[in-house]
Amino acid sequence: MRSRANSCRRGRAAEARGTHTSRRAICAFVVAAVLLSIPVAVIAWTTWCSQNAATTADPAQPEAVDADGFPVVDWDYWLSVNPDVIAWVSVPGTSINSAIVQAPVDDPTYYLSHDIHRNENPLGCPYLDADCATAGFFSDNAVVFGHHIKHGAPMFADLALYSQEGFARQHSVILLQTPQDKRMLTVAGAAVVNGYDRTKRTSFADRDDFARWYAERLGECCVLLDSGPADGCITFVTCSYTRFSNERTLVYAT
Fold it and tell me: Which end of the chain, N or C, is more open, meaning fewer C-beta atoms within 10 Å of its C-beta?
């Protein structure tokens, strides 16, 4: 009797050990599966963000340019995607080749966190400042913002390179087009500033007021290609990472 009882206890103990071992194996498998799924999910998410943030001037013929070197834009397509699309900016020889949308007046930073399809997306979409909604690119100072994205949909990353004189001189022409017209802008200068400094202005009391402001902005440029006066300017802005924790590179074009 005692022998059979001991045998039963040993059997139950072995069964318990087997159950614990099985549970540990299951737990280990679940943990491993979760750990493996995290990078897969991150890759899938970043790929989705890049694909939805990327813009091609004409999806049917992505490499097409006109006689002046402007990308051929399918305006009907992009306006059907998002009626906020107002322009296309490109710089030959760089990764800058993107739609520009108009930031809504009631939500000026909307396109910092939404792509051209209006999906929530940290890559955002280059946009014209909400203060310029009325005059558009004919504002005294039309300010265009875009994220500094190095991979996937590069957005305005190459704008940060304008703080290098050689790069600025080699890429001194910015092509800006709207459904109504095309403009070859010339880069006047580039500045690297602290994002906390409040230097942005989009309207001025008169031409003298603008002239003073513009001269001050050129005076702070680290790269200056043209110090002459201007009737107005377009300022392209992106984040950069060289001097300040909240840094911006500003490229002034006329």
Answer: N
Q: Is the pTM value of this prediction over 0.85?
A: no
Sequential DSSP letters for 179-239: SS-EEEEEEEEEEEEETTS-------SSHHHHHHHHHHHHHT-SEES--S--S-EEEEEEE
Decide the pairing of beta strands 141-145 and 233-239.
parallel
Distances (CA, A) of 109 to 104, 124, 130, 233, 237: 8, 10, 8, 21, 14
Residue 236's φ and ψ, nearest 5 degrees, are -100, 130
pLDDT tens readout for residues 38-86: 565 555 656 767 777 888 999 999 899 999 999 999 999 999 999 999 9
Radius of gyration of the chain (CA): 28
**Amino acid residing at 253:** A
